[in-house]
């Protein structure tokens, strides 16, 4: 009966074991997983736009090939994650409609424009770097399909972060103009990268429940701190200054103190009023509408195949 099912679910979570799609799960557990995994998938797909902007403008064939590979990876990450969400009984059509209507979110970071080529490196270094901090723990999330999707995604994120850092290192060894372009890009992306980890723990409605269910294994602030501590030495090696005068090593905490994030900006961008929100969603809607005939044709073909087999 339900009490036994609940007890088994709780025991599985307590043993840090995996919940699989066929297992009984509380409806709220299923719903919060659909919420988080779908929004993660939306982030990957929308994230193709800012970088895609530079594929036709890359300065060399090598840089173009690397960027093309990365953007294609992001599409693949979106597909793995939508597949993990479908195991919870939702359809991709439904999720895409929720993204386009604004009923579901995607990561705020992708609502900022990519104004210079250095942004391609900065996104790899900072945005994919932040994503790694946030996604490595998710490899051990309690829902099986999500954790397994994360293992493949994290391997590819490491390539994304490395290629971005190498791109910036190359520019820093170039001209003064290139060094200035890198610094200007870092100035624009540093604070929005910190916002990727979500609101502070004391303003996070989902964290407590997600931690109790083993969906999250660390809180937003813990992972944000880990990202700052990892990135400061990388910035020093690169020779760029992170745009936070309060950033300083705290010997007692064995961690870096850093300035206050502009949470008004965060909630404004999350709420749809960032620099590129309208453009990003309109572009996604256009792609979805333009692809309708492909989906219809594939579905019709699949039906013909099925009827050929069953006749
Ligand atoms: N952008 C947009 N919305 C955000 C956000 C952000 N940076 N941070 C938080 N939010 C939303 C949450 O979704 C939640 O709204 P909802 O209840 O309607 O979903 C609300 O703000 C409150 O935040 P919480 O902290 O309570 O929500 P969570 O417990 O879900 O924590 C999270 C937010 C840390 C982003 C968590 O959902 C998570 O770890 N998600 C999986 C990782 C992910 O989505 N990463 C996106 C990064 S982009 C990426 O990975 C692509 C890579 O290739 C660069």
Entry keywords:
311 residues; mainly alpha; two-stranded antiparallel ribbon; 2 strands; binds 3-hydroxybutanoyl-coenzyme A; phenylacetyl-CoA 1,2-epoxidase activity
What topology emerges from the helices and strands here?
Blueprint: H1 2-14, H2 27-46, H3 48-52, H4 61-86, H5 92-101, H6 118-135, H7 144-172, H8 176-195, H9 207-212, H10 220-238, E1 248-250, E2 255-257, H11 263-270, H12 277-290, H13 292-310
Antiparallel strand pairs: 1-2
The structure holds 3-hydroxybutanoyl-coenzyme A.
GO molecular function, one term: phenylacetyl-CoA 1,2-epoxidase activity
Pfam families: PaaA_PaaC
Protein name: Ring-1,2-phenylacetyl-CoA epoxidase subunit PaaA
Textual characterization of the structure:
GO terms for molecular function: phenylacetyl-CoA 1,2-epoxidase activity. It comes from Myceligenerans xiligouense. The mean pLDDT is about 95. Strands 1-2 form a two-stranded antiparallel ribbon. The chain is mostly helical. Strand 1 and strand 2 form a beta hairpin. The termini are far apart. Helices cover about 65% and strands about 0% of the residues. The longest helix is centred in the middle third of the chain and has 29 residues. The protein is built from 13 helices and 2 strands; from the N terminus they run ααααααααααββααα. Bound molecules: 3-hydroxybutanoyl-coenzyme A.
């Amino acid at each position: 009966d339900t009490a036994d099912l609940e007890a088994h679910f709780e025991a599985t979570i307590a043993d840090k074991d995996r919940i699989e799609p066929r297992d009984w799960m509380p409806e709220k557990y299923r719903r919060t997983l659909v919420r988080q995994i779908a929004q993660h998938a939306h982030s990957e797909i929308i994230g193709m736009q800012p970088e895609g902007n530079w594929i036709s403008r890359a300065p060399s064939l090598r840089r173009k090939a690397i960027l093309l590979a990365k953007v294609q990876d992001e599409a693949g990450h979106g597909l793995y994650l939508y597949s993990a969400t479908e195991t919870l009984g939702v359809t991709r059509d439904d999720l895409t409609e929720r993204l386009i209507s604004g009923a579901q979110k995607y990561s705020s970071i992708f609502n900022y424009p990519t104004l210079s080529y250095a942004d391609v490196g900065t996104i790899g270094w900072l945005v994919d770097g932040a994503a790694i901090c946030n996604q490595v723990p998710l490899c051990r999330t309690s829902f099986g399909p999500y954790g397994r999707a994360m293992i493949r995604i994290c391997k590819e994120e490491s390539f994304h972060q490395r290629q971005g850092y190498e791109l910036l290192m190359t520019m820093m060894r170039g001209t003064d103009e290139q060094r200035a372009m890198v610094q200007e890009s870092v100035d624009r992306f540093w604070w929005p990268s910190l916002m990727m980890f979500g609101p502070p723990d004391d303003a996070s409605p989902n964290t407590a429940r997600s931690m109790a269910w083993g969906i999250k294994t660390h809180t937003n602030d813990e992972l944000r701190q880990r990202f700052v501590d990892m990135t400061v030495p990388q910035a020093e090696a690169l020779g760029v200054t992170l745009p936070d005068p309060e950033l300083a090593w705290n010997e007692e905490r064995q961690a870096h103190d850093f300035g206050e994030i502009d949470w008004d900006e965060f909630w404004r961008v999350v709420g749809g009023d960032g620099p590129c929100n309208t453009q990003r969603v309109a572009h996604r809607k256009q792609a979805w509408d333009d692809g309708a005939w492909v989906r219809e044709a594939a579905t019709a073909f699949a039906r013909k195949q099925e009827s050929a087999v069953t006749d």
